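Now read this:
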Amino acid sequence: MMAKAKKVVLAYSGGLDTSIILKWLQTEKDAEVVTFTADLGQGEELGPARKKAEMLGIKEIHIEDLREEFVRDFVFPMFRMNALYEGQYLLGTSIARPLIAKRLVEIAEASGADAIAHGATGKGNDQVRFELTAYALNPNIKVIAPWREWAFKSRTDLLDFAEKNQIPVPKDKKGEAPFSVDANLLHSSSEGKVLEDPWEEPPAYVFQRTISPEEAPDTPTYVEIEFRNGDPVAIDGRAMSPATLLAKLNDLGRANGIGRLDLVENRFVGMKSRGVYETPGGTILYAAHRAIESITLDREAAHLKDSLMPRYAELVYYGFWFAPERLMLQALVDESQKNVEGTVRLKLYKGNTIVVGRKSPKSLYANDLVTFEDDRGAYDQKDAEGFIRLNGLRLRTLAARDRNT
């Protein structure tokens, strides 16, 4: 049996659930609690989280702005692979969890804590992501997952515990919440309640990061994104830090109704779930990155990348960011990006991201090869005859056999 934890670092949002967890750790586990709150660009004031932690008697409070690290070391490496889970999902929640868990482990080690705790439920993917990351970074860390341990059976039980322990309950939490939201600089996701029936169209109020395509301007917005080593470095000629650049793309996407996705996905734990995602800047970045790769990546390198992408995306979704196989794939991807450099021009219009131009000093696109005009001997069309005959040899052999049987 696992030894009792004496000091626990809790991933703390300041919301009702993690405040209840905080008090539960104190009263039921008799543990000293350290809180950690990460600013990943979720767009919420983090001051209230500090005040609530102080009110609950917490002495060691960590609130950190991780937006630049999040985009630079997690989002951008993933976008070099053009990772899409099940062909659609840009992995906005998935990619945030390993960074949060990494900091939980680092704070635990620095503060002498022997355990970490999170507020993920036993039905979701996040519990896996948090814990696999923690064990990959510290094999001896203890992980406490209250939703898998405590005796609470309903939201009423939680509210009763909150009132008994003088935990403030926001008025909108007195009843049933219409849906749950998770957000960071890359995306927002909404799940549950009014979204649980996959036949029903999401209500307009679910969308928080984008205006509807119908309400987007009638005039398109043009934007140019510059890349170096596969990462975006400037917008319209202006150099920006990773987080600043993604925030700018979010603004452009929001204003043009870009990045909405209504998805039924397969969770790692075995069930299907319906989520509504908004990834305005990421949707623009994905299109731009594929466009700059189209003129700078060799055909076989590009096709190899595309063949490995589903596996990479699964590793991110399942929580294996720090696993050796993801690191191996990342090394391959990063090698492929050394010449992915140049500028992409896009037209943003009523929910659409349309590539309208791309250029690169390292382009493999050769006008004298593809032109329908006189190519001045750059390509001898007669060479195609032998190429086709050799590639058709096995097909002709098969056809000859089949005709004789």
The mean pLDDT is 94. The chain is about 40% helix and 20% strand.
